[in-house]
Specification:
199 residues; 9 helices; elongated
Length: 199
């Protein structure tokens, strides 16, 4: 077998394992990612798993990296240049809530990484948006990064809690909107008003 073909086959097998792990993690989170369960879902022997991953922690990292990239892309797609900061801010978090609603276990895995400082592209996107608002004088803060980290952590925790507690996405979206409206009111610069948050 040619080396290029062999690499393609290995990458395909690795992605098959990651896909199986993401399917399990979608509802069951990290606890569902045992070597035996992942191997069974992927249709391989457990010994084959170890050819591609040293341990389940390495697989969890691959799952989180892929899921995080997907979440960041979904969040980025929710931002539209024709909308203002508040509309984009609200839409990004509603979009992430819908993603979490579909894949609660996987989302909780990502959220736990966020608290360890591994939020990645989504946090960078939020930080850039806040920097623009600080420069425009609409947000009362001197530093975008700490504010973005606090918002990110609080909103992620709330989304995880809502996926566990609420029975319907509609109720969860209402609770998230209430929380985000309070956040926006607290961030705005003195004398400034945000439209779309009911103040």
């Amino acid at each position: 077998m040619k080396p290029e073909r062999k690499r393609e086959k290995q990458e395909w097998a690795r992605q098959t394992i990651v896909k199986a792990a993401r399917e399990l993690a979608a509802q069951g989170g990290a606890q569902a990612l045992t070597v035996r369960q992942v191997a069974e879902r992927a249709g391989i022997a457990p010994s084959v798993f170890y050819y591609y991953f040293e341990n389940s922690g390495q697989l969890t990292d691959a799952v989180c990296r892929q899921a995080g990239e997907e979440a960041a892309a979904v969040a980025k797609d929710a931002i539209k240049p024709e909308r203002n900061f508040v509309e984009n801010f609200l839409e990004v978090w509603r979009t992430l809530l819908r993603l979490a609603w579909e894949r609660p276990g996987e989302y909780r895995m990502l959220s736990s990484l966020t608290r360890e400082g591994a939020a990645g592209p989504g946090l960078e996107l939020l930080t850039r948006q806040i920097e623009l608002e600080i420069a425009a004088g609409t947000i009362q803060s001197r530093e975008a990064q700490p504010l973005a980290e606090d918002i990110w952590t609080a909103a992620q925790a709330l989304i995880c809690r809502l996926t566990l507690r609420e029975k319907s996405l509609e109720v969860a979206e209402k609770r998230l909107n209430e929380f985000l409206s309070l956040l926006l009111r607290g961030m705005r610069a003195e004398g400034r008003r945000y439209e779309n948050i009911g103040d």
